[in-house]
Amino acid sequence: MQLSWSQPCSMIQLLLVSNLLLWECVVSRPMCLDIGYKKLFLQELLDRATVIAQYTSNLTMQMSEEFDENFAKNLEYKARNSSTCHTASLTTLEINEQIQQTQSDELLKVMISISRAWYHPLEHIVCEVAARKGTCETMLSKIKEVEENQELLEEMKGILVRVHPGAEENAYPAWMGLAEVRSDNEDTHHFALSNLLHCLRSDTDKIVTYLEVLKCQVIHNNNC
């Protein structure tokens, strides 16, 4: 039977059937499409976090080298050990094989703990470097930029929530080096700041490495 606009009930029925068929097509789509969209969104988060981490790592390298050149190049004791860093108590991974075998949630928790452990030390680094005579504006601006760049921590928290909903963050170590940083002894003061910057450089490098491994695990199923 041919339908006409004078048959409103029939037209409504036709529209309902069409919408039902369209809905069935939508519902019957493979679930992998939705999973693929989530993976794409997660990859964007990881890419952003990696870019921020690499940029921060580059800044800390420049800061460390500039500070040593201006204030610490004449120190008799130049040797440094990562065990003197306040983040040394964290279970960090140094060997590439160990990093790759670590679960993604643990990698994220370690990265968040490292980032949070630097909140107060960075505040004091900015104050002390700003107070030093001879500090160039470029070095000070870099340190302030690293301090203000807390979005990396927020990015990692967002990734943790999406990858492992309900996961709890690990505790982070307190920094106990304020007395050395504020020491009246110039050598002690300079070495404390120099060591802090070297530790910061080491920790930001770790975060970059961990993010690359995490991306390989979560996005590429370890096929990297």
Which helices and strands appear, and what pairs or packs with what?
Layout: H1 8-27, H2 32-72, H3 96-101, H4 104-117, H5 119-131, H6 137-148, H7 151-163, H8 178-181, H9 186-218
Helix pairs in contact: 2-6, 2-7, 2-9, 4-7, 4-9, 5-6
What can be said about this structure in brief?
The chain is an all-alpha fold and 224 residues long. The chain contains nine helices and no strands. It comes from Peromyscus maniculatus bairdii.
Explain how this protein is built.
It is found in: Secreted. Keywords: Hormone, Secreted, Signal. Belongs to the somatotropin/prolactin family. By secondary structure, this protein is mostly helical. It has 2 domains: 1-30; 36-218, Growth Hormone, Chain: A, CATH 1.20.1250. Helices cover 70% and strands 0% of the residues. It has helices spanning 8-27, 32-72, 96-101, 104-117, 119-131, 137-148, 151-163, 178-181, 186-218. Helix 2 (32-72) runs antiparallel to helix 7 (151-163) and helix 4 (104-117) runs antiparallel to helix 9. The longest helix has 41 residues, at 32-72. It is elongated. Mean pLDDT is 76; it is low at 1-35.
Largest sheet: none
Residue stretches low in confidence (pLDDT < 50, at least 5 long) are 1-35
Radius of gyration: 26 Å
Please state roughly what percent of the residues sit in beta strands, choosing from under 5%, 5-15%, 15-25%, 25-35%, 35-45% or over 45%: under 5%
What sequence of helices (H) and strands (E) makes up the elements?
Answer: HHHHHHHHH
**What is the level 1 CATH name of the largest domain?**
Mainly Alpha
Structural class: mainly alpha
Helix content: 55-70%
How many DSSP E strands?
0
CATH fold-level name of the largest domain: Growth Hormone, Chain: A
Specify the number of helices: 9
The termini sit apart by: 61 Å
Number of domains: 2
* CATH-derived architecture of the largest domain: Up-down Bundle
- The average pLDDT score comes to 76
- Globular, elongated, flat, extended or rod-shaped: what is the shape? elongated
GO molecular function: hormone activity; prolactin receptor binding
Pfam family, one: Hormone_1
Main location: secreted
GO cellular component, one term: extracellular space
